[in-house]
Specification:
With about 210 residues, the chain is of the alpha/beta class. The chain is built from five helices and seven strands, in the order E-E-H-E-H-H-E-E-E-H-E-H. It binds zinc ion. Zinc ion binds next to loops.
Amino acid sequence: MCRRAQGESTGLSAAPTRGKPTPMMVVEEHLVASAEAYPSRRRDEIVGVVVHRIEVSQEDPGYGDTASEVARFFAEHPLGRTATGGKMPYTVLVDRTGAVTQCVPLLRITPHAKSHNPTTVGVGVIGDFRTQAPPEPQRLGALQLVAALVRELNLSAQAVHGHDELNDASHDPNKECPGRRWVMSEFRADVAALLASETLGPLPFLW
Ligand SMILES: [Zn+2]
């Protein structure tokens, strides 16, 4: 089951969001319970955040496009298990409503960007942004999540990358991730602007 970890006094709900959707942070406890299966790292080893697209219904229509279904796909489905050995590749997921789910603690290494795994946090945005732009609530949820993450890690917006912007980050050199409709240069600029605005409340990240 999920536990809502956002408190009224500490979460983004306390920030002046001017009527914009507020991301809801959830910790997936059943995945956190298996955190020991993931190698650990120090906080100062993390130098970046990597944005991905993920839509498991494309691989198998028996799976839905929600955070728990993405987790189930990588834990149980032969294609998912072949890709990651049964591990969840994304530390955090953002669904279409903008709700944020943390699946793995920040100091655990997940298999999401090959040689960059030990030094980056993988953010999985649910959808396919090769052909469709994200719904606005989802874009805002991802924006607030990534900005809060960057600040928590003492990084800057320049430390945010799309998966296919990195070298040696995929076994498929033609992989388009997160996709041309998720414009990374604009997203980085939005992250920088949100950080500069100082209106962003903390999110309850699990370390
Ligand atoms: Zn990716």
